[in-house]
Amino acid sequence: MKMEEIWGGCAIVLVCILVLAILFFKNKLEIIMGFFMRGILGAVVIYGVNQLLLFFGISQGVGINPLTLLTSAILGIPGVCVLFALIFI
User: Fold this and answer.
1) How far is CA 57 from the centre of its chain?
2) How many domains are contained in the chain?
């Protein structure tokens, strides 16, 4: 056997394993991707609202750090609303 045939066979086996893993963990991947998407969306919303507050002359805002990203990833947009409500209390 040539080396190219061996590498080709290994590539086919790895692709098959990857497809099976994706099918097996499909539900868990959706949960994990939803978590990351909520975190990213939360960061974008926090940045946007901070810019909007600066436009209106309010210098207070919510910082983007691991704690606020985790809050937005777990609670979503309502969590971001709570973060902004806490700075005005």
Assistant:
1) 30
2) 1
